[in-house]
Each structure stands twice: as C-alpha cells, then as structure tokens.
Design goal:
about 45% strand; mainly beta; six-stranded antiparallel beta sheet; 12 strands; four-stranded mixed beta sheet; about 0% helix
Amino acid sequence: IGIEKKFNNWDKVSEFDFRLSAVTANAPMPAGVENDGTKIIHATKAADTATFGSIAYEAAGEYEYRVEEIIPTTRVEGVTYDETKYLVKVKVDANADGTKTISVSKKEDKDGAVYAATTSPVQIKFTNSYAENGSAEIGIEKKFNNWDKVSAFDFRLSDDQIGRASCRERV
C-alpha cells in the first residue's frame, strides 16, 4: 500500500506524513509499526511517492486498513490539506495447492462509498494546495479644483489578470 503526494508549493512545506492503521483486529502490518500499532511514512518534493512496506499474510481472510494524511496540529497558513481518508480491503484466499490469491480494493472512508477493485500495490493520491492569503487596505484621495461642476467620481480597482477582485467606490 502506497501514497502519491501532489502539492503545488514545496517551498512552503517540505514534508507530509501519512498513516496506515489496521481496521480489522489483528490484521498483519508491515515492518516498522509505531507503539500505537500504526505505520507512518513521509513524502517530500524529491520523493513524492512512498510505500508502507510489504505485508505478509499467513492466514486466509479479509483485512481492512485505513490510510490517511496526518494533518499537523499547527497548519501552515495558506495550505489546504487533503483530509480524505481511505479504506483498503485485502482479501486473502487459500488455494488447494497451498498458495494464496490476494485481491485488493479501496474506497474513500465515507458513507455511501463503494469498494472498487484495484491493483497491488495500491497507490492512493493525496493532493494539497497552497494559495496566498492576506489583505490590504487601499485608500483613494481625489484632488479636484472645481467641485461645483462635478459632484462625484467613480473609481474601480480590479485584478485584470485573474479577474477575481473587483471593487467600486464613489467619492
């Protein structure tokens, strides 16, 4: 099970963390699990894909795992984090010859989501984005020498390149 991280400004955040946890009690886990039974991996600009490692299945059965990005307690201003959680189901069937057949499916961890078959290794994409936040105060002072002829002037402030900001003021 692995992840792929998409992010539009690696200069703002250099690393993102991801967690794999077993939903099914006693489900096998990859090597290197934390004390709480979860496995943590990282993605960076140089390595935007990562895997949790291989999992050995000794017994037939269905095993369910949750994969999620770890959202930091202190968020970086302007970063929108992908808070989607995914469930991965691994079905292990024992064959008569002693081998095992493994099928894998995944879905978003939300009401109404349906498992969809996928290939192994499972690759789950998380997308974060960065956008500048901020505000500015812009003042207007109009100097005019004959106010008896004109009662008001209109001013428009707009962002011509994107067209997102527009303001009109009468002075």
